[in-house]
Specification:
PyrdxlP-dep_Trfase; 12 helices; 396 residues; 17 strands; 37% helix; seven-stranded mixed beta sheet; arginine biosynthesis; alpha/beta
């Protein structure tokens, strides 16, 4: 779709949506779509959710912005709600996941300098994605998105995802490490999960060497995996947790949560944001947190995820070109043997929105409110397309 007034940064699909309702979107022609990607994990409560809509309308009629020169009531309320659900101590609000990750990286460097490390380093993972600012671009493990933007930012060490022995080797040979930054499930990298004991082992390693354990839960947070945060599937407490996406249900907000020694690192003047945590976005975020933490909403996500995965395995499990079905909750990847980007357009024609990441992984991030009937509809569209892909890819 030619849009000459916009910078050419996106390969947009040929559709424009005009409204949404629950798990549905409607385009300019009135065609209805089932949303299987929820704005890349953003619309956790679906479209036009009544609690979020009411919160935004009410707040917009009262006060949009004052700046962080003053106390912001809704910001304090949202921070308290996030700390209550996470066990963390305090929160810094930003406008995006990338900015929240920038805050985490600054916390790591502050911690390193407090330990008299001249050039503090953060260990990051291969295939990671943390954002597109210069620091988070460097922290990401995708050479394709880094190309053309050198020089990158120094102060990062890369390790294989899920390999605790590699981190132990880094600890033995490098005394400049201040923190580890890792996604509990790699989203953009292809929906890769960690070994069951990895986070507990990583927590112990960080404690041993006085590293901050920092989790990027931009995509996995806010109920996506069947717990409010993905680390809550284990018995560990991180020092820093970063989230965004589903927190605002479409309103741009990010949050960097800190615990223990990390919670006192920032002092006035160390960090800030003009728009971060303004009354409007925090009203929306508070509506999201309150909705997710009531009426067993997150427990239902876990059940819906099991139902969806079971359906995928039943229909696709014997297909030789399906190399894996993985994920947790309603964050699911279906890996195929060949690049499969055209499936996105094919699904769009059938009225289903999906995404392909890491070239050959069909990524599903449906709204957390999706029910079993809607999951059955998703399966009835997607599975035949994936099964037919083997013939298409071999013919090509």
């Amino acid at each position: 779709m030619a849009q000459p007034a916009l910078m050419n940064t996106y390969g947009r699909l040929p559709v424009t949506f005009t409204r949404g309702e629950g798990v549905r979107l409607f385009d300019t022609e009135g065609k209805r779509y089932l949303d299987g990607i929820s704005g890349i994990g953003v619309n956790a409560l679906g479209h036009a959710h009544p609690a979020v809509t009411e919160a935004i309308q009410t707040q917009a009629a009262q006060l949009l912005h004052t700046s962080n020169l003053y106390s912001v009531q809704k910001q304090s309320e949202l921070a308290e709600a996030l700390c209550a659900v996470s066990g963390m101590d305090n929160v810094f609000f930003s406008n995006s996941g990338a900015e929240a990750n920038e805050a985490a990286i600054k916390l790591a460097r502050k911690h390193g300098h407090n330990r008299n490390i001249d050039i503090p380093h953060v260990v990051v993972m291969e295939q990671a994605f943390h954002g597109r600012t210069l620091a988070t671009l460097t922290a990401s493990g995708n050479r394709k998105i880094q190309a053309g933007f050198e020089p990158l930012v120094r102060g990062f060490i890369r390790a294989p995802f899920g390999d605790i022995a590699a981190l132990e080797t880094i600890a033995e040979n490098n005394d400049s490490v201040a923190a580890v930054l890792i996604e509990p499930i790699q989203g953009e990298g292809g929906i890769h999960t960690l070994p069951p004991e990895y986070l507990s082992q990583l927590r112990a390693l960080c404690d041993k060497h006085d590293w901050l354990l920092m989790l990027d839960e931009v995509q996995t947070g806010n109920g996506r995996t069947g717990k409010y945060f993905a680390y809550q599937h284990s018995d560990i407490m991180p020092d820093v947790v970063v989230t965004a996406k589903g927190l605002g249900n479409g309103v741009p907000i990010g949050a960097c949560l800190a615990h223990g020694k990390a919670a006192s690192l920032f002092q006035p003047g160390n960090h800030g944001s003009t728009f971060g945590g303004n009354p409007l976005v925090c009203a929306a975020g508070l509506a999201v947190v309150n909705t997710l933490t009531s009426n067993n909403a997150i427990e239902q996500v876990a059940e819906s995820g099991r139902y969806l995965v079971a359906g995928l395995k039943e229909q696709l499990g014997n297909a030789s070109h399906v190399k894996g079905i993985r994920g947790q909750g309603l964050m699911i990847g279906i890996e195929l043997s060949t690049p499969c980007a055209p499936l996105v357009g094919q699904a769009l024609e059938k009225g289903l929105l999906i995404n392909v990441t890491s070239e050959r992984v069909v990524r599903l991030l449906p709204p957390l409110i999706i029910n079993q009937q809607e999951i059955d509809e998703l399966l009835s569209i997607l599975c035949p397309l994936i099964l037919a892909w083997a013939d298409q890819s071999s013919a090509a």
